[in-house]
Amino acid sequence: MNFSKFLRSFTIGFLGLSHIIRSEQNMRLHCCAAIGVIIAGFVFSLAAWEWVVILFCLGLVISAECLNKAVERLADRVTREQDPLIKQAKDCGSAAVLVVAITAAAVGGVIFLPKIWALAGR
């Protein structure tokens, strides 16, 4: 394995992440939510298994948004004209982000709501 190629792949990945954060409002929203969830995790002293689940969900949401952006960019490169199949591809990419985000929110609710209720009941 060539170590410089290995490091270059990380650089390329971070360039892509930087681009999507700068160019996509939804990605900035996901990142702000992720920061909020991580802060809440420290405030509520999450157990190790809870951290694993939360971090996995955060990674899935951000990855889904990146993949959706890749689909949109490729589709726009193919044609800017109205095409029903390209619209369906873009809609399906957006749906994937929606499903993962809703699932992550539900997981967050399962983990955080009992902690919030216990705190409020004091």
Automatic annotation (TrEMBL):
Q: Which cofactor does it need?
A: Mg(2+)
The UniProt transmembrane annotation reads 29-47, 92-113
Residue sites binding ATP per the record: 24, 72, 90-91
Q: Does the keyword Ribonucleoprotein apply?
A: no
GO CC terms on record?
plasma membrane
Q: Tell me what topology the record assigns in the membrane.
A: Multi-pass membrane protein
Keywords of the record: ATP-binding, Cell membrane, Kinase, Lipid biosynthesis, Lipid metabolism, Magnesium, Membrane, Metal-binding, Nucleotide-binding, Phospholipid biosynthesis, Phospholipid metabolism, Transferase, Transmembrane, Transmembrane helix
Query: Mostly located where?
Result: membrane
Q: Name one GO biological process term.
A: phospholipid biosynthetic process
Note describing how the cofactor binds: Mn(2+), Zn(2+), Cd(2+) and Co(2+) support activity to lesser extents.
Cellular compartment(s):
Cell membrane
One Pfam match, given by its short name, reads: DAGK_prokar
Gene3D superfamilies, per this entry?
1.10.287.3610
Please verify whether the record's keywords include Lipid biosynthesis.
Answer: yes
Which sites bind a divalent metal cation?
24, 72
InterPro entries attached here?
DAGK, DAGK_sf, UDPK
- Name the CDD domains for this protein: UDPK_IM_like
Q: Which residues bind substrate?
A: 65, 94
Instruction: Identify the catalytic residues.
Output: 65
Show the GO MF annotations: ATP binding; di-trans, poly-cis-undecaprenol kinase activity; metal ion binding
Q: Which Enzyme Commission number(s) are listed? A: 2.7.1.66
Q: Which family does it belong to?
A: Belongs to the bacterial diacylglycerol kinase family.
What protein name is recorded for this chain? Answer: Undecaprenol kinase
